[in-house]
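**User:** I keep going back and forth on a fold encoding question. It is easy to fool oneself when nobody else works the same problem. Could you pick a protein and write out its sequence and tokenised fold? Could you put it straight underneath, so I can go through it closely?

**Assistant:**
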Amino acid sequence: QVQLVESGGGLVQPGGSLRLSCAASGFTFSTMYMAWIRQAPGKGPEWISNINSVGSITRYADSVKGRFTISRDNANNMLYLQMNNLRPEDTALYHCALTRSYKDYLDNKVDYWGQGTQVTVSS
């Protein structure tokens, strides 16, 4: 079965940085589109970024563009999210996710996501 295990979250002050990691298993990671989504307190899931199978194309939500960077290491089945200049409104549970179809990838849809890692931005 598909497993996505996120790590790297924590408490950080505004303006600080964190790097999230996602360890993937149970599928052929190198052929899948991958994404990050987040759930802020009292809100539904928000798509924030995705990446194609070889890591040559990345896209971002306007809310994180210029601050976050998605990347992947196919040799080790790992997905990453580098988060810089964090803001209190970035506080959320961050989930690694996979997308199976090209159509859903273009539409920023996800098919499966992990349990998440908590990011809290506060002074």
Notes: The radius of gyration is 13 Å.
